[in-house]
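Figure 3 (text version): structure tokens given as input.
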């Protein structure tokens, strides 16, 4: 029985390592997912800023063209003003010219605002571009190292699978079935040592009689509290 229990311990060690590798692999994937999501978020911010800048620039161009038109009209009106003799007509045209001057002032003020806004959009695009480039660099590097870690982990999992198979084949079928059952019901830890009468699976005390039997190592023992397979691990206090 001692030898069989040794094999179960070995099996448990293999399963522990495999579980650790699985956790590492999951972490790798999570890291990549997070970074990829970050890159996507900055990319969409860049797209929004670009759209904003293009829209502003378009409005700016339209307004510039309007200013040119209104200025041309005003010039014509000013020329007409010279030839008007009728006082009432003169006054009306003068008012029209004053109105267009006001309108041009307003439009030019608006143009300055557009230009400032375009500048701001350009500036924030610039810093977003920088951020994006840095993130893309980080993503590329991270992808490289994660892929390395991942292939290393997958390779190790393959080795562990092989080791597990060979160890499990040398365990009595009943015992192996028991191990598998406990492994499932305990979430991965089926075999635990008992040190100084304490089960390392649940940290509870093992009754003296079971502890004595356990030390003899003649038969398979289960922890009466957590129902894991236990084995005696001698330490200095014993
Ligand atoms: Zn226990």
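Below: residues designed for each position.
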């Amino acid at each position: 029985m001692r030898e069989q229990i040794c094999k179960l311990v070995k099996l448990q060690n293999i399963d522990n390592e495999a579980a650790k590798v699985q956790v590492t692999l999951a972490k790798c994937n999570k890291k990549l997912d997070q970074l990829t999501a970050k890159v996507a978020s900055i990319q969409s911010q860049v797209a929004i800023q670009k759209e904003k800048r293009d829209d502003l620039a378009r409005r700016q161009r339209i307004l510039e063209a309007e200013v040119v038109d209104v200025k041309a009209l005003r010039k014509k009106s000013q020329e007409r003003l010279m030839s008007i003799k009728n006082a009432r007509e003169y006054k009306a045209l003068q008012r029209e010219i004053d109105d267009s001057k006001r309108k041009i002032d307003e439009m030019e003020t608006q143009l300055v605002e557009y230009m400032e806004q375009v500048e701001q959009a350009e500036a924030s695009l610039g810093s977003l571009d920088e951020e994006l480039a840095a993130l893309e660099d980080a993503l590329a590097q991270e992808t490289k190292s994660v892929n390395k870690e991942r292939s290393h982990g997958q390779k190790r999992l393959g080795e562990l699978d092989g080791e597990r198979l060979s160890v499990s084949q040398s365990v009595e079928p009943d015992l192996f079935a028991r191990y598998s059952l406990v492994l499932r019901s305990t979430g991965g830890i089926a075999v635990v040592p008992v040190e100084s009468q304490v089960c390392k699976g649940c940290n509870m005390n093992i009754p003296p009689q079971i502890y004595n039997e356990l030390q003899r190592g003649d038969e398979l023992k289960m922890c009466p509290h957590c129902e894991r397979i236990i084995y005696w691990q001698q330490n200095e206090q014993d």
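Strands lie at 191-195, 198-199, 221-222, 229-232.
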